Amino acid sequence: MVTIREEKFADIAAREALLDEAYGAARFTKTSERLREGRLAADGLSLVATHNGRLVGTVRLWNVTAGPGRAALLLGPLAVHQAHRNRGIGSALMRRAIARARLAGHYAIVLVGDAAYYGRFGFSAAATGALWMPGQFDRDRLLALELKSGALAGALGMIGAAGRRAPTPDLAALVARDGHGERTRVRRARAA
Ligand SMILES: CC(C)(COP(=O)(O)OP(=O)(O)OC[C@H]1O[C@@H](n2cnc3c(N)ncnc32)[C@H](O)[C@@H]1OP(=O)(O)O)[C@@H](O)C(=O)NCCC(=O)NCCS
Predict the structure, then answer these.
(1) Distance separating alpha carbons of residues 67 and 131, to the nearest angstrom
(2) pLDDT digits (tens, 9 = 90+) for 42-89
(3) pLDDT the model gives residue 176
(4) Across the chain, what does the average pLDDT equal?
(5) E-strand stretches of 29-101
(6) Which amino acids bring their CB within 6 angstroms of ligand 1?
(7) Rounded distance between C-alpha atoms, residue 34 and residue 19, angstroms
(8) How far is the CA of 31 from the CAs of 58, 74, 113, 138, 142, in angstroms?
(9) 71-75 and 54-66 strand pairing
(10) Could you give the percent of the chain with pLDDT greater than 70?
C-alpha cells in the first residue's frame, strides 16, 4: 500500500539515496539547487511516499521570491523510485503538495521541469516570461502555478532563495570537544 506523509528526520538517508538514483550527481549542479542549498524546506511541505514502509517517492517545496518582494514556493526535486513509476505516485505527491501549499496560504509555486509532465497539475510558462533563475535554465522549463489568482501578475526579476537557513554545525565546538576527548584518552593511557 502506498502512503503519502510528511517527511521525518529518519527518512533523509533513504530520500537522498532515491535522489542519487533518480538524478545522479548532476543534481547538485542544477540551478534550482542554488535556491535550496543551505536552506530548510518550507514548513510542512516535505513529503514522502512509502510502499509497505519503504520510501519510494519524495517531493519538497522551498520558500523563494519570484522577483523582489513576491513570496512563492519552488517545487523540487520530485522523484519516484524506478520500480514504482507509472502507478500514480508522482501525481499523488504533486497533488498533495499543491493542496498543502494552498491550505498553508502560499501564493504560487514555480519549478524547473518538463511541461509535458507538470502541465497536468496546472503548471505552465505563461506567468514566468519575465522571471529568471540565478544561473543557466531553459526558459520553456521554468513553469508556475498560481495558488491565488493573479499572484504572479507582473512578476519580474530573479527568483531568489528565501527559506530559513539550515543550522550549520559549530565547527569550533566540535574541534574543542574532539580535542578534549583526545586529551582524556592520552591522560587515561598515561595513567594505565
Ligand atoms: C517524473 C516522475 C516523478 C513521475 O513519477 P511517476 O510516479 O511515474 O508519475 P505518475 O505515475 O503520476 O505519472 C506517470 C505519467 O507521467 C508521464 N511522465 C513521466 N515523466 C515524464 C516527463 N518527464 N515528461 C512527460 N511525461 C512524463 C509518464 O509517461 C506517465 O504518463 P501516462 O500517465 O500518460 O501513462 C518519475 O518518472 C521520476 O522520478 N523520474 C526521474 C526524475 C525526474 O525526471 N523528475 C522530474 C521530471 S521533470
Answers:
(1) 7
(2) 999 999 999 999 999 999 999 999 999 999 999 999 999 999 999 999
(3) 83
(4) 94
(5) 46-51, 54-66, 71-75, 79-80
(6) 22, 78-80, 85-91, 113-114, 116-117
(7) 16
(8) 19, 12, 12, 10, 11
(9) antiparallel
(10) 95
Query: Using an 8 Å Cβ cutoff, are 49 and 88 in contact?
Result: no
Task: Judge residue 12's burial from the number of C-beta atoms within 10 Å of its C-beta, 0-12 exposed, 13-18 middle, 19 or more buried.
Answer: middle
Given a cut of 70, whether residue 183 has pLDDT beyond it is: no
Pairwise CA distance, residues 86 & 81, whole Å: 10
pLDDT at 126 over 80: yes
Which residues neighbour 115 within 8 Å (Cβ) at sequence distance 6 or greater?
123, 124, 125, 140, 141, 143
Which one of 15, 78, 85 would you pick to mutate in the ligand 1 pocket, going by the greatest count of ligand atoms within 8 A of its CB?
Answer: 85
User: In the structure, what pLDDT confidence band is assigned to residue 182 with cuts at 50, 70 and 90?
Assistant: low
pLDDT tens for each residue of 144-155 = 999 999 999 999
Task: Kindly report the protein residue whose alpha carbon is nearest to atom 22 of ligand 1.
Answer: 117
CA of 91 to the centre of ligand 1 (A): 8
